[in-house]
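Subject: Interface between my chains keeps coming out wrong

I've been trying for a while to get a sensible model of this assembly. When I model each chain on its own everything looks fine, but I need the whole thing in one frame so I can look at the contacts. Pasting all components below, labels as-is. Any help appreciated, I'm running out of ideas.
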Amino acid sequence: EIVLTQSPGTLSLSPGERATLSCRASQSVSSRYLAWYQQKPGQAPRLLIYGASSRATGIPDRFSGSGSGTHFTLTISRLEPEDFAVYYCQQYGSSPMYTFGQGTKLEIK
Amino acid sequence: QVQLVESGGRVVQPGRSLRLSCAASGFTFSTYGMHWVRQAPGKGLEWVAVIPYDGDNKYYSDSVRGRFTISRDNVENTVFLQMNSLTAEDTAVYYCAKTLGGSYLSAFDVWGQGTMVTVSS
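Reply #2:
Try treating it as a single job with all components included. I did that and got this:
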C-alpha cells in the first residue's frame, strides 16, 4: 500500500501570502494519478487538482499542482480568506486502493 | 446540476447492520464508477469501496472487506453500501463520490454532503 505523508501538519499564513503544501509518497506514484482536495469544516471535500497539475472545473488559477515520483506540491499563489481549510492529497494509481494523506490544515495567522 | 445525496445514516448498536444510499442526478450515472469514502470524527479521509459503471469487479479497503458490500441500481441512479457486523471503529461520516472519468484510475470530482453513522450501544 502506498502511504502519503503531508507536511506541514498545520500551516499558518496571512491572506495574500503564498502557500506551499507538500505530499510525499512511500513509493513512486504516476503523476497522472495524484489529486488534491480541499475540505472546509462541515463540508464535503472538493476536488482541486487531478493528474498532479490539472485544475478541476471552476477552480481558480491561484491553485496549482506540481511534482512527480514521490514528491508532489500544491501551491496557492495568493491566499484568499476562503482558502483557509484542510487540504488532502490522494493517489489513485495503485487501484483498486485509493489512499489519502493525513491532511494539512491551512489556518489564518 | 450534478448532485449526490446520501441517506440512511443513524445510530446503530455494535454488531448490527445498516444500509446507506446515495441518489445521483444531473449526469449519466450508468457511465461512471462510484465510491464510498468515510471520515471518522476529527480524522482524515478513508476510502471504503468502489463499484464500476457496470457493477462488476467491486473493491474494498482492508478494514471493511468481508463486512461491507457496495452495489448500484443504474435504473434508479443509486449506489448503496450494505454494512454488516458494525463496530465502533465504523463510526464516521460516509460520503459517496463520483469518478471524474469512467475508469478506476480517476479522481473523485463530485461528492455528496455525507451521512453520519454512529455505532454505539
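Reply #3:
Confirming on my end. Chain A is about 0% helix and 55% strand.
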